[in-house]
């Protein structure tokens, strides 16, 4: 065999070896790709199964979860008549201390009280009272507020916080007041709550403070104190209002509301309540546990 033939033979052998290696590499890559696809399918199936399992679980409404948070406050095992008597006794005791106090918001007429209540969200009443004189001197009624430049209102109420949202709320409430009632603040619950941004708490406040109707004003202080006193184990303000209305005569409602709010600020705050100084300690399950 001459040198050229030998060289061709070596070249062919080398080419065959290369082709074999390429085939092996391709087979390995194919297996790897198949494994990846299989793994991806398994993950997708597991994720889908997990999603179905989660969606099949019954979701607890937010209102129910809020009520569950109220449960740690103890209630005494007492009949409805005994509870009624205790509620009246608590009301009378608180009235002795706070009975002369009305809402801490300064206002002149129902419209000003409506607007001031909107401003009081996430803000102290004292701070609201600092800005409302300027606000109402510039925009005296619903018509003037509806036509106001939002930027000007924002500048006046800036210190109350959330001033852009509050500006929209005040203008929206004023506009609906003009549209539905000609700018006059109505007295009924149904009419008041038809106004933009006005709920039952605000409506009860206006009805009680501006028009003299009995009203239960369930704010955060009222809610907390009512729970601690064992009068309710509810978290929803409307449900609390309805329950208190069942156990307390309407002749007590307005003064009881004001007293509960002032009491929540003075002696029964969320943190570090002054139970040992409480005038209704003997009628309070929460207080008895704290001092006992």
What share of the residues does DSSP label as strand, in percent?
under 5%
* Helix content percent band: 55-70%
Low-confidence stretches: 52-60, 62-71
Q: Which assembly state applies to the chains in this document?
A: single chain
Determine the number of helices (DSSP H or I, runs of at least 4 residues). Answer: 14
Number of strands: 0
Structure explained in plain terms:
It is a single chain. By secondary structure, this protein is mainly α. It is extended, with a radius of gyration of 35 Å. It has 14 helices and no strands. Helix 3 crosses helix 13 (253-266), helix 4 packs antiparallel against helix 10 and helix 11 (220-228) crosses helix 13. The protein has helices at residues 3-56, 62-70, 80-98, 110-119, 125-138, 142-146, 150-157, 163-181, 189-192, 200-209, 220-228, 237-247, 253-266, 285-291. Among the domains are: 79-96 and 216-292, Endonuclease Iii, domain 2 (Orthogonal Bundle); 108-209, Endonuclease III, domain 1.
